[in-house]
Write a structure and sequence with these properties.
Length: 180
């Protein structure tokens, strides 16, 4: 959840806007006046469910007083990933009330890194033995005033320990991997 407060009167803060992504908080970044935040939502497929329980939900008080269910046609899939977890990436500009921009992917993300212009999401690619991965898929997204657009993807040998195993330098993503 992201709460935007008007702080002009420090003695009486005023809630201006409330935004939410379904699932558990992963990370957030603020780049200039734009906020990007990421969540993960697991699907509990062991019980009988309705669409509302399977599809992720978002909320933006600037657009509607109701939750918005993300249509399954708007959900992309990380290829070759066998996961029943959604990754949701939301972006919004603090200075306008345009709707929350959300990209949703079926497949759990592992590590996230953001520069001023790009967002990188890594996904471990597993073999038949689920606990042993030989490579990591990296998805690069262009960040533009709250909009999130897939730019490219690639695969590297090994896996990344955490977000600090990545950085961007002069337009190039640099990674440090382990165990390939």
């Amino acid at each position: 959840k992201a709460l935007v407060y008007n702080m002009k009167d420090k003695k009486e803060l005023k809630l201006e806007r409330e935004l939410a992504l379904d699932g558990s908080y992963v990370q957030a970044r603020m780049i200039n006046d734009t906020v990007y935040f990421i969540s993960r939502k697991s699907i509990n497929y062991y019980r009988t469910m309705k669409d509302i329980e399977v599809l992720p939900i978002v909320y933006d008080s600037a657009v509607s007083a109701q939750d918005i269910v993300i249509d399954c046609k708007m959900i992309a899939c990380f290829p070759d990933i066998k996961s029943s977890t959604y990754t949701l990436v939301g972006g919004f500009n603090l200075n306008d009330n345009e709707g929350l921009s959300v990209e949703t992917f079926l497949g759990a993300s592992n590590n996230i890194y953001a520069s001023e212009e790009h967002l990188y999401i890594t996904v471990p690619k597993t073999t038949n033995n689920f606990y042993y991965n030989r490579s990591t898929l990296i998805y690069k997204f262009d960040l533009d005033d709250g909009e999130i657009k897939l730019e490219t993807d690639g695969e590297i040998n090994g896996y990344l320990n955490d977000q600090f195993s990545m950085d961007e330098h002069k337009g190039y993503l640099r990674v440090a991997t382990t165990g390939f």
